[in-house]
């Protein structure tokens, strides 16, 4: 955690500085906006700016945006003027803190910034295997590739690896390769000299130098242009970088972690990703399974988010009901943890009573999650299949399987494709099973109106 205090607030924020340093944060001071910009350009970086409300916060925000520097701002001041606080928020500050500071309030702000979206929660064994491998390799300096679908928590895992490494007390710097235009990404990574291009008003230290001694996360590296990939490969191999417009190589000491939601082997075959760079980055691969393959994690994360958003909204912490848990584990979660988090946030706001019930598990437009995307016949078949499985004790697997298949087919109105999808089997397997049952004289729901399949086959013979 790196805190930059901007303004003549050193005396007023002595307590805040002490709290931050006691929690392992580094604190830098700058009296003016220009000095603050020089600190940020110079590679020291910051995770949070604490800015005197008397300064021109809107100007600071605009200058940060112009130089593509992303860091949250918290305004603070000794004035009780509510208009100053409102103006600071409108200008782009995330929060306003009155001075002299309340120690608990300062600590809470710092903790919120330091821990925002970084909790690593898991219980499922599928995720446990990934965590175990991450723990094994965390202490090394080996490059790591983290793969998985969007929203599975790749950056969270990257921060976890960093926190368990020998570089844990040094910077963790992240850059999203997909979010920055191609012509700016090189400058963001390697920095630039004053006048190197239009808009380069001063020397700017890039992410490689900013991360020196620590870890650099290259998020969604598959989106990086091939030309820039060659420069990145040289930086990784030789541990030196060239600033844009610079004339002298700059040594760097960093560990690289990269993430991708694409299959990079396919990207290599397509020619959009360098094979030699993939070999350099993929020393260890941490592949995060999608949330739908980690059912125990779904429930663990749901409880975590329910508590988090209840506290954030000043609401009572409610447990997730049994029926709601069933709805959550049955969903496909195409957006993974990110989608689950938003869903639980909604459910906390919509829940009534002592529990979060299934009726509070809603889509963004307010429909029940378990019914919104399902055709009526398929929803009916799903409920029927659940009823069939309730009384299993004392029955053979073959009997249970047969009844499940026949009841599902019945409530799909004979639609073989729908039934196979619900059952999780191929249409060929379903047809073989139905032929087997028909040969045994068991009625089979026809695809349309008419007699059962085995009767129609008999009459046809």
UniProtKB/TrEMBL annotation:
<dbReference type="InterPro" id="IPR027417">
    <property type="entry name" value="P-loop_NTPase"/>
</dbReference>
<dbReference type="Pfam" id="PF00158">
    <property type="entry name" value="Sigma54_activat"/>
</dbReference>
<keyword id="KW-0902">Two-component regulatory system</keyword>
<feature type="domain" description="Response regulatory">
    <location>
        <begin position="2"/>
        <end position="114"/>
    </location>
</feature>
<dbReference type="GO" id="GO:0006355">
    <property type="term" value="P:regulation of DNA-templated transcription"/>
</dbReference>
<dbReference type="InterPro" id="IPR058031">
    <property type="entry name" value="AAA_lid_NorR"/>
</dbReference>
<keyword id="KW-0238">DNA-binding</keyword>
<dbReference type="InterPro" id="IPR011006">
    <property type="entry name" value="CheY-like_superfamily"/>
</dbReference>
<dbReference type="InterPro" id="IPR003593">
    <property type="entry name" value="AAA+_ATPase"/>
</dbReference>
<dbReference type="InterPro" id="IPR009057">
    <property type="entry name" value="Homeodomain-like_sf"/>
</dbReference>
<keyword id="KW-0067">ATP-binding</keyword>
<keyword id="KW-0010">Activator</keyword>
<dbReference type="InterPro" id="IPR002197">
    <property type="entry name" value="HTH_Fis"/>
</dbReference>
<protein>
    <submittedName>
        <fullName>Sigma-54 dependent transcriptional regulator</fullName>
    </submittedName>
</protein>
<keyword id="KW-0547">Nucleotide-binding</keyword>
<dbReference type="GO" id="GO:0005524">
    <property type="term" value="F:ATP binding"/>
</dbReference>
<keyword id="KW-0805">Transcription regulation</keyword>
<dbReference type="InterPro" id="IPR002078">
    <property type="entry name" value="Sigma_54_int"/>
</dbReference>
<dbReference type="Pfam" id="PF02954">
    <property type="entry name" value="HTH_8"/>
</dbReference>
<feature type="domain" description="Sigma-54 factor interaction">
    <location>
        <begin position="120"/>
        <end position="349"/>
    </location>
</feature>
<dbReference type="Pfam" id="PF25601">
    <property type="entry name" value="AAA_lid_14"/>
</dbReference>
<feature type="modified residue" description="4-aspartylphosphate">
    <location>
        <position position="52"/>
    </location>
</feature>
<keyword id="KW-0597">Phosphoprotein</keyword>
<dbReference type="GO" id="GO:0043565">
    <property type="term" value="F:sequence-specific DNA binding"/>
</dbReference>
<keyword id="KW-0804">Transcription</keyword>
<dbReference type="GO" id="GO:0000160">
    <property type="term" value="P:phosphorelay signal transduction system"/>
</dbReference>
<dbReference type="InterPro" id="IPR025662">
    <property type="entry name" value="Sigma_54_int_dom_ATP-bd_1"/>
</dbReference>
<dbReference type="InterPro" id="IPR001789">
    <property type="entry name" value="Sig_transdc_resp-reg_receiver"/>
</dbReference>
């Amino acid at each position: 955690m790196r805190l930059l205090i901007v303004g003549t607030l050193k005396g007023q924020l002595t307590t805040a500085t002490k709290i931050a340093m006691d929690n392992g944060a580094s604190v830098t001071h700058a009296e003016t906006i220009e000095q603050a910009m020089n600190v940020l350009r110079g590679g020291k970086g910051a995770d949070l700016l604490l800015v005197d409300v008397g300064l021109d916060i809107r100007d600071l925000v605009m200058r940060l945006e112009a130089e593509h520097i992303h860091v949250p701002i918290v305004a603070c001041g000794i004035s009780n003027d509510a208009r100053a606080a409102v103006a600071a928020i409108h200008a782009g500050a995330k929060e306003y803190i009155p001075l002299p500071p309340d120690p608990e309030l300062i600590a809470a702000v710092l903790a919120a910034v330091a821990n925002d979206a970084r909790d690593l929660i898991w219980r499922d064994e599928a995720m446990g295997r990934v965590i175990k491998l991450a723990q094994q390799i965390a202490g090394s300096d080996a490059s790591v590739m983290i793969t998985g679908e969007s929203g599975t928590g790749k950056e969270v895992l990257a921060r976890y690896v960093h926190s368990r490494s020998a570089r844990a007390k040094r910077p963790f710097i992240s850059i999203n390769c997909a979010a920055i235009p191609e012509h700016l990404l090189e400058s963001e990574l390697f920095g630039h000299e004053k006048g190197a291009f239009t808009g380069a008003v001063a020397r700017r230290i890039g992410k490689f130098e900013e991360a020196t001694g620590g870890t650099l996360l290259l998020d969604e590296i598959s989106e990086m242009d091939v030309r820039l990939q060659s420069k990145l490969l040289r930086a990784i191999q030789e541990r030196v970088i060239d600033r844009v417009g610079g004339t002298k190589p700059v040594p760097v000491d960093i560990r690289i972690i990269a993430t991708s939601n694409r299959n990079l082997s396919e990207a290599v075959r397509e020619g959009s990703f360098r094979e030699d760079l993939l070999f350099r980055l993929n020393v260890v691969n941490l592949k995060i399974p999608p949330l739908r393959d980690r059912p125990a994690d779904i429930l663990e994360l749901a409880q975590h988010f329910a508590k988090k958003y209840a506290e954030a909204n000043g609401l009572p912490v409610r447990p997730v009901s049994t029926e709601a848990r069933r709805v959550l584990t049955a969903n496909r979660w195409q957006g993974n943890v990110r989608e689950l988090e938003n869903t639980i946030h909604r459910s906390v706001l919509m829940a009534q009573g002592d529990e979060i019930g299934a009726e509070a598990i809603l889509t963004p437009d307010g429909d029940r999650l378990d019914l919104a995307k399902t055709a009526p016949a398929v929803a009916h078949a799903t409920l029927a299949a659940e009823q069939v499985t309730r009384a299993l004790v004392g029955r053979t697997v073959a009997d249970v399987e047969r009844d499940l298949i026949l009841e599902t087919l019945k409530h799909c109105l004979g639609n073989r494709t729908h039934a196979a999808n619900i059952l999780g089997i191929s249409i060929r397997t379903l047809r073989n099973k139905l032929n087997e049952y028909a040969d045994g004289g068991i009625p089979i729901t026809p695809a349309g109106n008419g007699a059962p399949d085995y009767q129609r086959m008999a009459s046809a013979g």
